[in-house]
């Protein structure tokens, strides 16, 4: 399984975009080492190699943000609140782009969701 993941990373990352020459400033891992192992050396590696890995993560998963599982103790409103937060960001973006009809639809959806909390 690890070899499969490593091979997938090698193929996915085999493009000519930016690669930091020095590697990670904290652990010293180079991009080549990451590409060969499929593992980061430390927490700072993701920031170091982010320009290369995020497009691939988005391509593989369909999105580039980790959502994870919601703990049962958080309740059902947690997901709704996160969805409202996302919609508010979309609303702000629509207003900035002067897409007022779309902004109105998003605003109405936010109001509907907030009334159900």
Automatic annotation (TrEMBL):
Keyword Chloroplast: no
Coiled coil: 77-116
Molecular functions (GO terms): cadmium ion binding; cobalt ion binding; copper ion binding; kinase activity; zinc ion binding
Keywords of the record: Coiled coil, Kinase, Transferase
One GO-annotated biological process of the protein: stress response to cadmium ion
Pfam families tied to this protein: UVR (PF02151)
Keyword Transferase: yes
Domain UVR: 81-116
Protein name as annotated: Protein-arginine kinase activator protein
Taxonomic lineage from the root: unclassified sequences, metagenomes, ecological metagenomes
């Amino acid at each position: 399984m690890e070899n499969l993941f490593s091979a997938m990373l090698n193929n996915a990352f085999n493009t000519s975009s930016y690669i930091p020459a020095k590697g990670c400033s904290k652990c010293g891992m180079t991009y080549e080492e990451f590409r060969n192992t499929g593992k980061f050396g430390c927490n700072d590696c993701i920031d170091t190699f982010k320009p290369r890995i995020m497009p691939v993560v988005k391509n593989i998963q369909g999105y580039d943000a980790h959502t994870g599982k919601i703990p049962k103790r958080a309740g059902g409103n947690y997901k709704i609140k996160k969805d409202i937060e996302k919609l508010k960001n979309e609303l702000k973006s629509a207003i900035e782009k002067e897409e007022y009809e779309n902004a109105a639809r998003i605003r109405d959806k936010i109001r509907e969701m907030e009334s159900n909390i």
